[in-house]
Automatic annotation (TrEMBL):
Organism: Qipengyuania gaetbuli
Name of this chain's protein: Molybdopterin molybdenumtransferase
EC number of the protein: 2.10.1.1
SMART domains registered for this protein in UniProt: MoCF_biosynth
Homology family: Belongs to the MoeA family.
Keywords (A to Z) from UniProt: Magnesium, Metal-binding, Molybdenum, Molybdenum cofactor biosynthesis, Transferase
Function, in words: Catalyzes the insertion of molybdate into adenylated molybdopterin with the concomitant release of AMP.
PANTHER family recorded: GEPHYRIN, MOLYBDOPTERIN BIOSYNTHESIS PROTEIN
Pathway(s) served: Cofactor biosynthesis; molybdopterin biosynthesis
Record's catalysed reaction(s): adenylyl-molybdopterin + molybdate = Mo-molybdopterin + AMP + H(+)
GO cellular component terms attached to this protein's record: cytosol
Length: 394
């Protein structure tokens, strides 16, 4: 069976980024840059004050000696001119430094009377000046192609003085939940043996958080001819189709057969991980198709591990950036791992990670509390409290 690392490599190798488009900056949040973003000009464009206070030439300042005030400098106003030797200028945070000044003394050290000011001893040694280009220079690379325009990246994009950016086209996603027993939330209690369908809601939320548009959502009963119709509509509407359930090898597991008429070409079928062994990935009619297990926890774990990197790759992002494992201490022990690579759902505490009590693939109640996945190679020995483990934000 394919290992997790092998499956990820196969997936990345099979995906080609969607075309790029230019969009207004205010519409770019959550998208992936399709081209590098360079600064248009220096920042700051000239030396500015980092504090509210008084601009001075430091060598002309003596503690407790009165100095004449030579006007003021405020952000956004014209050039304040040149500071005459022995004088000071009132200045505010972000305002341009007058020529000749090399220091800003914070206003907390100042005593002002009319047109004069003096400074008590103790100011410095910091000069509280942001020199021209100290943040970045014109032409500097601020954001690389493939960067996700998350909130902090949006600040950098705006600081580049660009009103439009090149981003990948928004992927269109179709989600199909299979299973005769599934019912729409709010209706399951009305039918004996029905289960409220839940996995697709988490998958849809993940897709939207990754900057995708969910254009079709459907539930399909376990009848091949009906599922083939749903599959055809999904392939026509979307760039990527995600199927939950029907991924095993039973008589009613039709997730792969439903794409048979569309020429399903599998990249991998099954991955040696727990939970999520039945996960599969391929192409049909030129579209990407991923099959997730039907159990909600398995579906969300495999979506985090494989679907999220897939969605990043579709947008020219860096799949590895979606799988940054970090070392975290355990706040409770872990038993010996089995013969498959295991991803343990856990909750972060001040002492470290605590595995959630129910690790069954069908358990939904603990899922909301599990904010980390602990990665355990196959055959890992018992891990005691305090041991470091590799973990991924879930």
């Amino acid at each position: 069976m394919t290992s997790f690392d092998e499956a990820l490599a196969l997936l990345v190798g099979a995906v080609r980024p969607l075309p790029a488009e230019s969009v207004p900056l205010e519409q770019a949040a959550g998208r992936f840059l399709a081209a590098p973003l360079h600064a248009r000009s220096d920042a700051p464009s000239r030396a500015v004050s980092a504090m509210d206070g008084y601009a001075v030439t430091l060598e002309n300042v003596e503690p407790d000696r009165w100095m004449s005030l030579a006007g003021e400098s405020r952000p956004g106003l014209p050039d304040p001119g040149t500071l005459e030797p022995g004088t000071a200028m009132r200045i505010f945070t972000g305002a341009p430094l007058p020529a000749g000044a090399d220091c800003v003394i914070m206003q907390e050290y100042a005593e002002r009377e009319g047109g004069q000011v003096r400074f008590r001893s103790g100011f410095g040694p910091a000069r509280h000046v942001r020199t021209a280009g100290s943040d970045f220079r014109a032409g500097d690379l601020l954001l690389a192609a493939g960067t996700s325009l998350a909130p902090r990246a949006m600040v950098a994009a705006a600081s580049a003085d660009r009103d439009t950016v090149e981003v990948s086209t928004t992927p269109k996603i179709a989600i199909i939940a299979t299973g005769e027993e599934l019912a729409a939330p709010g209706t399951a209690h009305l039918k004996a043996g029905a289960i409220s369908e839940s996995a697709s809601y988490g998958v849809a939320a993940m897709c939207e958080a990754m900057g995708c548009e969910v254009v079709l959502r459907a539930r399909g009963a376990d009848r091949l001819e009906l599922l083939e119709e749903v599959a055809a509509k999904a392939l026509e509407a979307a760039d990527c189709v995600v199927v939950t359930g029907g991924a095993s090898v039973g008589d009613h597991d039709l997730a792969k057969p439903m794409f048979g008429k569309a020429g399903l070409d599998l990249v991998f079928a099954g991955v040696a991980i727990k939970p999520g062994k039945p996960v599969w990935f391929g192409r049909a009619n030129g579209r990407l198709v991923m099959g997730l297990p039907g159990n909600p926890t398995s579906a969300m774990v495999t979506a985090r591990l494989l679907l999220r990197p897939l969605l990043a790759a579709m947008q020219g992002g860096i799949p590895a950036a979606e799988l940054r494992f970090v070392s975290m201490p355990l706040a409770a022990s872990l038993p010996h791992a089995g013969d498959r690579e295991t991803f343990v759902r856990a909750t972060a505490t001040l002492e470290g990670l605590v595995p959630v009590g129910n690790q069954e693939s069908g358990a939904q109640a603990p899922l909301a509390a599990a904010d980390w996945l602990i990665r355990r190679p196959a055959g890992s020995p018992v891990c005691n409290k305090g041991a470091l483990v590799e973990a991924l934000p879930f």
